[in-house]
Amino acid sequence: MRGGDGSGKTTLLRLLAGDLRADAGTLSIHGITLSAQPDAYRRQVFWIDPRSTQFDQLSALDCFKSLSHQYPSLQAALTGELAEGLGLTPHLAKPLYMLSTGSKRKVWLAAAFASGAAVVLLDDPFAALDKGSIRFVLELLADAGEHPTRAWVMAHFEAPQGVALAQVIELDE
Hints:
Blueprint: H1 9-17, E1 28-29, E2 32-33, H2 38-43, E3 45-46, H3 60-70, H4 76-85, H5 101-114, E4 119-123, H6 131-144, E5 151-155
Parallel strand pairs: 3-4, 4-5
Antiparallel strand pairs: 1-2
Helix pairs in contact: 4-5
């Protein structure tokens, strides 16, 4: 999804995640609907609002452990590789409230890519990241497009360079 500030990108992601109630329609993944089986639906959708303070008292490592309860397919071994690729390794034992905005976003990105969720929702994934981490995330997104069993929905103000996208949705302000 592409659009400027206030165009509804985050709101749409929150609707898809089941955080907001839709006025009409049905959300379904693999035959599991949000209205009939909300917990089962949410286990298939990885979503963390990047502004969340829910995990601030946990270290990144404890956060990954906590998320593995919600996302049973989360690959714990992969979080370490992703943390290394994102330059997050020196910060894994620190509580999230001690991390910079960029480092905290790296925790969410590592969790997202390791989650194994059928649908992964990313809100402005490049915000506050250093150039090396942006390149790494672009590589991960390029690889993600090759996995036919997972869908990635990304909200950003522009389409990322070098990533094959199935669809670009323009949201007007």
